[in-house]
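Quick one - inputs below.
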Amino acid sequence: MNAKSFIKILILLLPVLLVNACKKESEEEQLLANRYVPTPLEIRTPAGFPPPLITDWNPTTVEGVRLGRMLFYDNILSSNGLSCSSCHPQSEAFAVPYHINPSGDTVSVPPVVNLAWNPDFLWNGQAQFMEHVPLADFGPEFFNSNMDTVVKRLKSHPLYPKYFREAFNVNDVAALSVPELQQTIANSLIQFIRTIVSDNSKFDKVSRRETVFTAEEMDGANIFYTERGDCFHCHGTPLFTNNTFNNTGMDTVFTGLNLGRYLYTGLATDMGKFSAPTLRNIELTAPYMHDGRFKTLEEVVEFYNSGVHWNSPNIDPIMTKSFKEYGLLLTGVEKADLVAFLKTLTDTSLLTDPSVSNPF
Amino acid sequence: MEKLWLNLRTVLLLSLLFSLLYACKKDNNDDVIPAVTNTLDIKLNYEVDGQPLLSDTLIYSNDAGNNYSVSRLWYYLSRIALVNSDSSLLPIKDYVFVDAFRSTTNEFTISGVPAGHYIGIKFYIGLDSVQNLTNALPATSDNLNMEWPVPMGGGYHFMKFEGHASDSAGNYGFAMHLGRNEYLVESMIWKHIQIVSGRSDISLMMNLNEWFRDPEIYDFNIDGNYSMGVMAAMMKLRNNGVDVFSVQ
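Output:
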C-alpha cells in the first residue's frame, strides 16, 4: 500500500471509527431520547410563605399533577366507589368532618391544604414523606382496592395510559409490581395535593392592604397575637401552624389514639402530643382537635380560656404560664372577637378554585 | 522514501488512537487546583454545669433550686466578629438560627477568614435593630417560627428556651422567651484565637444555668416561668445571658 492509498482509506474510515468510539454513549442517549421528559412545575408560593418542601424523589411536574388530579377525583382506585375527594371535597375546604377508624375511634380529617409546607404528616407525624400517606388508602379502611381490577381499569381507560407514560415513563401499569404501582399513584396524588394552596382569605387581603378588619376582628387579632390569647406560638403567620407537636392539656390520662405522637416515637415524653394543625379555613373544618371533640370554634376558645388541664403530663410549657393559673379570663366579647378573627382565615375562593377542581 | 512512509504511518495511527481515546472523554475538572481559602468551623456545644444537654430529661437544677428539663432551645447568633489585636472587629457571619437539638444547625463554616491572631470573639444572642424587624429575614420555617408578633413590638424572638420544672411549687412548664431590641444580649469573649492557613475551628459552649444567675438569680417561682412580655424577667435574662457562652 502506498502512502496515497493509505491516507484515502484512513479518511474513509475515520468517520466510522469516530462513530463507533462514541457508540456506547449514543445508545444511552438514544434510550434517554425515547423517554418522556415531564415538565417541571414550580409550586405557587405566596409572598411570605417559606420555600415548599418537595420530596427529592418525587419532583412536581405538569404531567404528574395532571395525573394526580384525575386520580384524586376518580373512584377508579376503589372497590367501594370512594375517591380521595370523598373525604377531601373541595367544597368543604378539602376535609370532611371526621372518620371513624376500625377501632371505633373518631379521627378529625385533616384538610389537604398548604401541605407543600408540612414537614410531617398525620396527627402524630407518623408519615415523614407525604408520598407514604396515600398508601394506606388502598387498604380495607378506605378504598378496599382490588389491585387487579385497578390495573384493568387503568389500562382500558382512554387517558390514563398516556398520562402514566408522560408523568412517570410507565408504558404499562401491569408491568409494575403492586407496591410500585401504588407508590406511583401516590406520587401523582401528592404532586397534585401540593398544588392546593390557600392564601386568599380576608386575613391575606388585609395583609395585602386590599381591605381592613372590622373592629371585632382587629380586637381578635390582638388577642391572637399577644399574650392575651397566646395563639401565635403554635399557629403563627403565614401558615398558621409552626409544624410542631404539642400537648395542649386536653387530657390527663392518655389511651388509644390520644396517646398521640407516642404511638409513633415510643417516647413517654410524646404522650398526648399532636401536630399543630393549620388554622387556615378553620371555620369550614369542624369538628376540632384530633378527635373532633369540640363541635364549634366557640367550644375550642372556651377550652383554651378555661378548660386546659394544667396537670396533664408533658403539657406544653406555653400552656402553663404562672400568671394564668385560672385560664385566659377572656370576657364574652373577647371570646367572640377571637372567633371573628379566626373566621377571617376562611378562603372561600379555594372552594371553587378551578385549578384544583374536579376535572371530570 | 518507504522508511519515511512507515514512520509517517506509525505517527498517524498513534495520533488517531489517542484522538479516539480522548474523543468521548468526559469533562473532568479534578485537575483544577482550587485556590487555598481559609475556613473556620464554629461549633456550638451545651452543658448544664458540667452535665451534657439531653432533651426532655429532668436532671438539671439551677441556683434557685428549680429542677428542670429542656424541651426546646432555639436562638439566633448574629453579627459574629473576631476581635483584631487592635480591638477592631472583623465581621465573619451575619446571623445563624440555632436549634440546640438539631445537629445541623450547631456547626457552620465560614470561608475566607484571614489567617492571623485574634484576641476575642463578639456576637449577639438575638438580632440587632437592623435585622430585628418583621419579615426582615428570609421567610424560612425557622425564621417564621421565631417571629415576635407585631402587636408585641414585631421582629423576632431572640431565644426560645423551654422545658418543664419540678420543685416545692409542684410540676410546671417554663418558657424563657427573649425578644425586642432593648433585651438584645451582647457577648464578648476575650480569648486568644489563632486562625491558620487552611482549616481552623472554634468551639463555643453554652452553659444553660448561666441564664439563671450572675448577676441575678432567676427563680421560676419568683420571676415567673414565662418571660415573654414580662419586661423584668426579660431584663434579668438579658443581663445573665452576657456570659452564657465560653470559648472551649
